[in-house]
Amino acid sequence: MDYLHVKNLSKTVGGPDTSFAVRDVSFTAVAGEITLLIGRSGAGKSTLLDMLGGLSVPDGGGIRYGDTELWPGSKQSAREARRKLALVFQHPHEQLFAATVRGEFDYTLRPFKLSGEEREARIAEALELFGLGPELLDERPHELSGGTQRRAALASVFASRPRWLLLDEPTAGLDHEAAARLTGTLRSWTRRTGGGALVATHDLDAFLPVADRIVMLSQGTVVHDCTSAELAARPAMLGDAGLLLPEALALGSLLRRHGVDVPAGLPAPEETAQAIAAVLAARARRGQGADAAAGLSAPEERLSAAASADAPASPGSASREAVLCGSPPTFASDSATAPAGAVSAGPFECGIPAGSPAIEGDSSAAETVQAGTTADDPFPSSGSGPFPAMEPSPPALPIGRRFDPRTFWIGYVLLSAGILLQKSLIGLAVSAAITAAAVLLSQVPFRAVWKPLRAFLIFTGLSAVIAGLTIGAGQGESPIGFDPQAALAAVRALSNLMLVLVLGVLFPLTVGYLRMKQGVEQGLAVLAGLKFPVEAVALTASLMFRFIPLIGGQWNRFGRIAKARGQGRSGKSGLGLAEFRIMALPFMFSLIRMADEFSTALEIRGYSRTGGRRTRSRTLRMQARDYAAMGVFLLVFLCLAVLADILG
Questions:
Q1: What is the dihedral of CA 205, 206, 208, 213, to 10 degrees?
Q2: Omega of the bond prior to 72 within 30 degrees of 0, cis?
Q3: Residue 15 has pLDDT above 60, yes or no
Q4: How many alpha carbons lie under 13 Å from residue 221 in its C-beta half-sphere?
Q5: What pLDDT, in 10s, does the model give residues 496-524?
Q6: Whole-angstrom distance, CA of residue 26 vs CA of residue 152
Q7: Does the structure show a pLDDT above 70 at 643?
Q8: Which residues contact 99 (CB under 8 A, 6 or more apart)?
Q9: pLDDT at position 578, please?
Q10: Rounded Cα distance, 242 and 376, in Å
Q11: How high is the pLDDT of residue 287?
């Protein structure tokens, strides 16, 4: 049987306080069906898709595709199975990198080793599926309109004929008509090919009518796993995931309260319109006016209802469900005027069971729609219960926010200078202890430091091997030898740089690039009177701070592209040699394009004109603790300098 089975899957996110992004998640998605992953932002939907698509490695649990273990399991079998899974990012055009649209298709189809005829047939089929013509193949992807880029990216994914589609917010940024086309294409694709789709989405109005199964997530765990029919019968389950009712369910509930025979479940808009028209026609035949037929007995009541509908939401106001589930307007006639067979309020209306303040087993459902609550805080803010509400204490500021960034600049310079003075093993050991203390105090996760440190350690090891090699040492000796003293000297020389590198990694992670830039600008401002090019230096530093994370982000983006489109190696991060050979030129072109866009942005914002006075969003001010910290940095530097002078 073709299915995706997730068993007790867990994933933690790094930080000073490690927390679960996904915890003990289990569910099964069956081919031929559309399965939704729904929940509030941060519930773990995208993290789940990344693990299923091989972009992220779980910390625990397992993933099975049919009879194949994707995790844990054989890398070769997992790689073959993952080619049947296609992951589409939230913004599909971010997956485009080739020079032409045809290049995008060629890259997607490369692992399948198809004949030329079969390749062209797949490309034509995918283009037709998304309403694109063959003339698009020679166009540059980044010169296309946003909508065409999205369709071209999706077409390149569909060309691989995957058995499973993993879609992350596919309707984000689409209007209603485009979203309807996309969901219709997805529904017809699953029925025609028997493939499965796992969709992470917030757009319940678009996807609930075509969904077969819904998995609701809250804070990284599954709170409900049900069919769409079960959700339509018990919409209060959405409250357990902290979600509001979609428009279709809320409107149907409101109309039923007014005696409109709206079909149960998720009726099509046409069915809802027909039900409304039937009620209006029936009441018109009884001699009632249009106002009464619409449920309003007087023009004044119409104005009152319109004013209520147009009233802006304010903090503490009722949520949409509370408004929709409030007391209905008075009808001109009693319930006897309702058409025969009219559906009254069902057992669950707007998430609240009729005649009951709470739902057994769904304790949060009633509170979710209670007046005076909001979607972000489904519980009353005032202490209406037996215990008064308590204001949560604000979280402690990280150390990088407690001090002025100029303090860290001065500290980094002093510590780096003191470390570079050391030439003895004792001095290096003391410097290493100081660096380790800085790592602990910064609260930066060690994995963030380890990645660049590991690369430098490899470089140091290779340098030691090369430095220790001796060739043609003398007569009677081996032509190739190894001098441990020379290798140790190379390691000792590079150890200082390694410790400074660690401090350099900690600095931006602790302070942040924006605050580092602010520190440079204000720190050098005192030199403006000496005609020092403060603005030019600050701008250069700002660009460096801006581009360092952007380059890393682009590198990670191309690594995700390689994996998401079937080229990456399962279980590995970044680009391998095989992928780098393909991605090197597109990666460089992307950096050039990014620099061009950045220069245009600087021109628009007036940075081509120097010498003018610029406003700051925030002015930094040194506090007493900043001066105390600088005193500590200076003391440590003096101790390191004295130690280096004594030990030589």
A1: -140
A2: yes
A3: no
A4: 7
A5: 999 999 998 888 888 887 788 788 878 87
A6: 34
A7: yes
A8: 140, 586, 589
A9: 64
A10: 7
A11: 72
pLDDT per position as a tens digit, 86-124: 998 887 777 888 889 999 999 889 888 899 999 999 999
324 CB burial (10 A radius; 0-12, 13-18, 19+)? buried
What CA–CA distance (Å, rounded) separates 524 from 512? Answer: 18
Q: What is the dihedral of CA 21, 27, 33, 35, to 10 degrees?
A: -30
Q: Output the six-digit token pair for 56.
A: 């992220």
Distances 447 to 141, 259, 303, 439, 451 between C-alpha atoms, Å:
36, 61, 61, 11, 6
CA distance 585 to 633: 44
The residue written with tokens 């004013």 in the block is 307
What are 282's two structure tokens?
């029936």
* Token pair of 417 as six digits: 């200078």
Name the packing angle between helices 269-285 and 247-257 (round to 10°).
20
Pairing between strand 68-71 and 60-65? antiparallel
Nearest 5°: phi and psi at 564? -65, -25
Give the start-to-end residue ranges of the domains of the chain: 1-84+163-245, 95-161, 248-286, 419-647
Count Cα atoms within 13 angstroms, Cβ side, for 623. 8
DSSP code per residue over 159-205: TT--SEEEEESTTTT--HHHHHHHHHHHHHHHHHH--EEEEE-S-HH
Domain covering 1-84+163-245, topology: Rossmann fold (3.40.50)
Q: Pairing between strand 34-38 and 196-200? A: parallel
Report how far Cα 239 is from the mean position of its chain's Cα atoms: 23
Per DSSP, the three-state class of 387 is coil
Confidence (pTM): 0.65
Query: Which residues, in sequence order, are bridge partners of residue 38?
Result: 216
CA–CA separation, 620 vs 276, rounded Å? 62
253: left (phi over 0), alpha (psi -120 to 50) or beta: alpha
Cα–Cα distance between 257 and 332 in angstroms, integer? Answer: 15
Cβ(207)–Cβ(213) under 8 Å? no
Of 161, 162, 173, whose CA–CA distance to 92 is shortest? 173
Confidence of residue 481 (pLDDT cuts 50, 70, 90): confident
Q: Note whether 350 and 325 are within 8 A (CB).
A: yes
Whether residue 70 contacts residue 64, with contact meaning beta carbons closer than 8 Å, is answered with yes
Are residues 30 and 196 in contact, defined by beta-carbon separation less than 8 angstroms? yes
Confidence of residue 435 (pLDDT cuts 50, 70, 90): very high
Query: How far apart (Å, rounded) are the C-alpha atoms in residues 295 and 281?
Result: 13
pLDDT band at residue 386 using 50, 70 and 90 as cut-offs: very low
Tokens 């619409």 appear where? 294
DSSP 363-375: HHHHHHT-TT--S
